Amino acid sequence: MTATQEPTRQAEIGRDRRRKEDQRLITGRTRWTDNITLPGMLHLAMVRSPYAHARITGIETSAAKASTNVVAVLTGADLGEGQGACINAWPVTTDQVTPAHLPMPTDRVAFAGETVAVVVARSAAEARDAAELVEVDYEELPAALDLKEAAAAHENGGVIAHPDLGTNVSAVWRFDSAEAGTGGDVEAAITEARAGGILIEREYRQQRLIPAFMEPRSVVVDPTGEQITVWSATQIPHILRFALAATTGVPESKIRVIAPDVGGGFGGKLQQTPEEMIAFAVARRLGKPVKFTETRSESLLTAHHGRDQWQRLTLAATSDGRVTGLKVDLLADLGAYVAIVGGGVPVLGAFMFNAIYKFPAYQFQTTNVLTNKTWTDAYRGAGRPEATYAIERLMDELAAEVGVDPLEIREKNWITHEEFPFTTVAGLEYDSGNYEAATARAKEMFGYDALRAEQAERRAAGDRVQLGLGVSTFTEMCGLAPSRVLGSLNYGAGGWEHAEVRMLATGKVEVITGASAHGQGHETAFSQIVADRLGVPFEDVEVLHGDTQISHKGLDTYGSRSLVVGGEALVRAVDKVIEKARPIAAHLLEASADDLEFKHGQFSVKGTDAAMAITEIATAVFAAHNLPDGVEPSIDSEATYDPVNFNYPHGTHLCAVEVDTETGQIKLRKYVCCDDIGVVINPLIVAGQVHGGLVQGIAQALWEEAVYDENGTLVSGSFVDYLLPTAADTISFEIDHTTSPATTNSLGTKGVGEAGTIASTPAVVNAVVDAVRHLGVNDITMPCTPERVWRAINDGSSGGETPEAAMPHFDSAEGDVQ
Amino acid sequence: MIPAAFEYVAPTTVEEALAALAEHGDEAKIIAGGQSLLPVLRMRLNAPEWVIDLGRIESLRGVRDGGDHLVIGAMTTHHDVGQDPLVHEHALLVSKAITHLADAQVRHRGTFGGSLAHADPGGDLGAPALALGSTFVVQGPGGTREVAAGDFFVDLFETAISDDEILVEVRVPKHDGWVASYEKFVRIAHQWPIVAVAATLRMEGDTIAEARIGLTNMGSTPLRASAAEQALVGQPATEEGVAAAAALVVEGTNPPTDLNGTAEYRRHVATVFTRRAVLAAAGRG
Predict the structure, then answer these.
(1) How far B91 CA sits from the closest chain A CA (Å)?
(2) If contacts are CB pairs under 8 Å, which of residues 20-39 in chain A contact chain B?
(3) Does A714 touch chain B (CB under 8 A)?
(4) A61: helix, coil or strand?
(5) Confidence of residue A816 (pLDDT cuts 50, 70, 90)
(6) Residue B272's closest CA among B194, B220, B212, B157?
(7) Shortest CB distance from B188 goes to which of A707, A729, A817?
(8) Cβ-based contacts of B46 with chain A (< 8 Å)
């Protein structure tokens, strides 16, 4: 027992803490999966199909088996049912068509890159060498490649990606505000607008993207213990364990999954992958540890892709620009299989096309289509970038039609800050926000009026380089997700998160979260939260995660959920620790529990200077010599939190670009954003998330595109042709925040992991179109390549298709390479 | 990304390298800085049984004054060529092109001769070497021979170097007092050029007295734009003076169509960038 004066300490929440995990992550001297080596470990190499669609008529493995240090060569038939299956956790409709997805198919491949055999050898190099010796006989089948053609194939005798299914349409999912009772009839609004208002009809392309996380996927499986241990570069260790157990028959209690340090994901590691399943099956078969680490080429080819939609959009408005209805009709390319949440990605966008606006009528429909291409699934934003792009592009088009500034048309339609909480036409209740404040701040930072004046001057002078200003006033739904809502959408799991707090005898604190960080900075941000709430030093908090034996409950990290759901679980677990400590403190301080107050880590008796630190109570509980009768010797606590609502960050993003009208080349001139993400835990981490997110969204607008040729070969199969930007390609961003605390969690936080990516794409494309709108352009297909911009300027088109050919720099098998 | 196994030899003289090449012939590949060969090996687009590394042959490194020309050793890194004061003084166009070549890491590993011998039409050095009328010195079992720039580049990834020869040096005629610019068109910074134009001029006052123009990625080899060069002579370095000549650069070109642009678009960009390169060289850009 100590009598102390009021301690002074700096609040951790809101502090620019450098990330405690960075030193080991950046130096690489840490537990990346591929760094793990076990005694007797064997290495795998995959034999992959070069064909988009083919029947497997024979696999000759004898030469590979005879190769140096090869232990086994196994096919799908060899592994049989033991290989399990890749699951779809979200059948979006009860009659969804879902092709069976074996990790290694036995009779037919459905996309180029699919694994048909696995070579097991004593070294990775020997496995790779032997993989070259496996001879697979294929009977090539016609491949369903074009999304629009595939969608109609069952009606016109077109090519079917999985012939047995008879159709490429996996599901049609629909929402209609009139049917749901959340709004009016969109067809009536369209009819009225056609008669005497404004009708904007557009078709936009969401190109296919590749998540391109920094660390390629890697998996190590050790079957030699009582439990089978799986290390995987995954975002979802808990879900992976469930899927392994559910599809292989191995009891869940016999499987331990560890996501050690994981180098990025962006949704790309939100998957139960065929490679994980194959490694698991091979390890079990051979009884030895195995490792598989993909090459970058394999990663680009076979890790799931993102986006890939056609969006048919109809916006009805009055002649002065008040929107009366929005109709959305999507085609979404699922690729060859319905991935773990693949079919749900467009559905996640369904509630977001109405964005920050008060639309009286709304209808959404997505047709999810199977093709013979790499499967698609979540990619940073998952459904919401697509929705935000569509509506923010349309609002600019409406502004142009009415002849007013794009910000004016938004203000005319947005929800005002007095109207929160606001139930939208899509049926969501937005808890908080202030679009006026974020927009005012962004305009001020941007120097909006001065840039508009410069734009007018350049137009008047007919400058070769024109200036364009792009607006994106986005919101998103994140913090996935209320379990009941997920249930109503037929999703196969809940959306809660779990946390535990262990009070160690030495006064240190272990925090366990079911979220699974892969670059976000959870260790740092969660330590800040706990340090503040529990009144212990930041350095004394250890955050543990990503190991199902330590973090036994969890639903992992995606959908900007870790802080707003996982953080709330953590707050509740901390509060339980304090409440469990209270009677013990009262006992030790010889006071009534009602007379205690807890502040800065100490229980003190009101009106006295008697106090005791919670860490001292932890020590006393460890000794357990002097506890009140009937009180268990533990103040450790856990909490599982199921969110009551989604979480709605928003922001105003403004982008200025210079377009060289002679070549179509685009140069970023200025980018500012004012995001409202509620209360900020660590501004430095938030800035990192925003900057990285912006670059990823800008890259969709300008650079990135996964392109297949007419045979279904991925043409953009290396970073020569899949253009990832570097720091050299971007500019310094100016970011700021307004704060409308979320009302649905204790800390008032909102998600930020996806915000930058969701907001920036339309800001950039709006800017590009704005730069050349006076030349007769009203759309440019993404990515806005210089050639597309040039063609748009010259022929008024949206720029045409991407040529399906790669640069030949590395095809020089016969060249004079020196 | 593991290459197939290969045997490796790193001779210290050109003669030893030639002997290794003679011994292993078709089964061997020469590696210089490895910036093109290593990706090819790692992606298993080629699997030579032998790799002959020129990296330890000191005589192939460095830049020296050869009188009316510079001698650039084939194994001199891009970085070293780019920083060399002799190159800056006598072959400014080469210096300018190297500042745009790939990124700092590549410039420190990649070599002048390696890049030229690889003969990627998208490489940044072919057009300047061609425009400056360089001579390529190759050495084989029978000694050295000289190949004129116009004869060196044969086709995509194909040069006049025979299977038993090694490129040992490049002789670049001095262009003292010539101004220069290398205008490279890319979508992202570390890309190969979609199109690039190498232009160097001898100015007499405001008038172009002589011009040399090379084109990158406008055909299966680097190209020299002779018609445009001639048309520029006597012209003032103004937008109007240069525009008509610039339009001639597309003559004889056969650019590729790929993800980054169609042939038609590349021709358009080549025209625009020729005008800009000439004006930039003349200090009017």
Answers:
(1) 24
(2) none
(3) no
(4) coil
(5) very low
(6) B194
(7) A729
(8) 812-813, 817
Reported as a pLDDT band with limits 50, 70 and 90, residue A671 is very high
Each residue's pLDDT tens digit, A270-310:
999 999 999 999 999 999 999 999 999 999 999 999 999 99
- Tens of pLDDT, residue by residue over A765-794, are 999 999 999 999 999 999 999 999 999 999
From the candidates B187, B197, B216, which should be mutated to test the interface with A, based on the most A CB atoms within 10 A?
Answer: B187
Provide φ and ψ at A771, rounded to 5°: -65, -30
Is the pLDDT confidence value at A818 over 80?
Answer: no
d(CA A41, CA A43): 7
Cβ atoms of residues A518 and A753 within 8 Å:
no
Strand order in the sheet with B7-9: B7-9, B50-53, B28-31
The two beta strands, A422-423 and A429-430, are: antiparallel
- Inter-chain contact B1–A297, Cβ cutoff 8 Å? yes
Q: Does A296 touch chain B (CB under 8 A)?
A: yes
A702: part of which helix (H) or strand (E)?
A: helix A683-702
Nearest CA in chain A to B120: A809
Percent of residues in chain A assigned helix, strand, coil, to nearest 5: 35, 25, 40
Q: Do A812 and B46 count as a contact with CB atoms less than 8 A apart?
A: yes
Question: Is a pLDDT exceeding 80 seen at residue A52?
Answer: yes
Instruction: Give the mean pLDDT of A488-507.
Output: 96
- What is the reported pLDDT for B117? 97
Which of B113, B259, B269 faces A806 most closely, judged by CB atoms?
Answer: B259
Q: What is the pLDDT of residue B284?
A: 87
Beta-carbon separation of A132 and B36 below 8 A: no
Does residue A812 surpass a pLDDT of 80? no
Chain A from 605 to 664: CB within 8 A of any B CB: 662-663
Confidence of residue A808 (pLDDT cuts 50, 70, 90): confident
State which residues of chain B have pLDDT below 70. none
Which of B44, B161, B268 has its CB closest to that of A816? B161
ipTM over cut 0.90: yes
Q: What is the mean pLDDT of chain A?
A: 96
Burial class (CB in 10 A: 0-12, 13-18, 19+), A11: exposed
Contacts of A721 in chain B (CB under 8 A): 258-259
Q: What is the pLDDT of residue A7?
A: 54
What confidence tens digit (pLDDT) does each residue in B188-216 have? 998 999 999 999 999 999 999 999 999 99
Q: Can you read off the two tokens belonging to residue A110? A: 């459905």
Closest residue of chain B to A715, computed from CA coordinates? B259
Residue A180 touches partner B, C-beta closer than 8 Å = no
- Please, what are the domains in chain B? 7-53 (3.30.43.10), 58-173 (3.30.465.10), 179-281 (3.30.390.50)
For the cut 50, the answer to whether the pLDDT of residue A693 exceeds it is yes
- Any idea which residue has 């800040």 for tokens? A528
Cis peptide before A727 (omega within 30 of 0): no
Q: What CA–CA distance (Å, rounded) separates A426 from A638?
A: 35
- Kindly list the residues from chain A whose CB atom is less than 8 angstroms away from the CB atom of residue B103: 728
pLDDT of residue A367: 98
CB of A124 less than 8 A from some CB of B: yes
Phi, psi of A607 (to 5 degrees): 80, 5
Q: Check: CB of residue A479 under 8 Å from CB of residue A565.
A: yes
Give yes or no for A212 touching B (CB within 8 A).
no
Q: Which of A742, A758, A751, A749 is nearest to A429 (CA)?
A: A742
In the predicted structure, residue A421 carries a pLDDT above the cut 70: yes
Q: CB neighbours (10 Å) of residue B136?
A: 25
User: For residue B114, what is the nearest residue in chain A, using CA coordinates?
Assistant: A818
Q: Which amino acid is at A642?
A: D
- Looking at residue A809, its pLDDT comes to 74
Assess A801–B contact: CB distance below 8 Å, yes or no.
Answer: no
